[in-house]
User: Fold this.
Amino acid sequence: MSEPLLVVENLKQYFKISKNYTVKAVDGVSFHIDPGETYGLVGESGSGKSTIGRSIIRLYDPTEGTIRFDGRDISGRLDPESRSYLRTKMQMIFQDPMACLNPRKKVSDIIGQGLDIHHLYKTREERTEKIERIMRKIGLAKEHANRYPHQFSGGQRQRIGIARALIMQPKLVIADEPISALDVSIQAQVVNLMKDLQEELGVAYLFIAHDLSMVKYISDRIGVLHLGHLVESGTTEEIFDNPIHPYTISLLSAIPVPNPAIEKNRKAIEYHYETSGIDYTKGEPRTVSGTHRVLATEEEFKEWTSKNVSWR
Assistant:
C-alpha cells in the first residue's frame, strides 16, 4: 500500500467575528486521500465543505490541526520551497466558472498563467504547445485560445478552469462544487471529462459537492460533513448501502427516485440536530467495518448499529 497523498488530522478552522463570538466553521475533521483516488465531501450548504478545501490549499491559515501533503507538513508557516511545491502540485477548480476567470484575459493567458508564474517552460513555443495540448484534452480547439471567457458557454468555461488546474500537472485537485453552476445536461459531460483525465494523468481529487448522485458516481470514498464535523466516512458502497448516522440517512432519503410509482410514496426522513439529543463535540470516530467510521458516543454507536433502519 502506498502512503496517502494527503493526510488531514484534527483540522479546525475558526473565524473570529467579534470579541464574544467565533464561528467554528470546521471543528476537528480528519481524513486522508490516496494517490489517484477521488474523495467526495458532501453535506448541506454551510456545513464547512468549501472551508476545508480552502484551508487545505492554504487560502486560509488553519486554526489548529495538521495537514500533510505528499510527505510535507503544510499546516504551519510555509518556507519558499514548500510554498512553491504546494502552488504547483495542488490546484483548485472553483464553483463559478465565470467569476474565477479574468474577463480581460484571453483563454491562452488564463490557462498558461501558472506556467508563467512558476517559469515552467523554456521557450514561447513550448508554452504554446503545452497550452494547446491541454486544450485538446478538454475538448477545445486551438482556435479558441485567442477568445475571451464571455465568448464561451458555462460548460466550456468550466473546462477552461479544469485546464488551468491540470496544466500544472498537479498530484491533487480540489474541485469545489465544480458542476453546481452548470445545466444538468452539461454536468455529466464535465464529470466524465474529469474521470477520463484522472485515468490518464493519475491525479487525485477532493470532490466537494451536495449532489449525492454525482458524488456516488465519481467518488471512491465519501465523507459526510455536518456543522463542521465529519459525522460519517467510508467507501461509496458503505455509505450508500449501510448508512449509520441519522444525518446520513436523512440525506440519502431525500434523493429523488426516477420512478413515478416509487417517488409518489417516498418519504424523506427528517433530522434536526437541535432536537436529536446528539452532541458532536462528545462523539468519537468509531469503526463500523473496514474503512467505515461514524462520529458517535459509545451509547449512540451501539444504538445505531443495533438498528436496521429501512429508509428506502
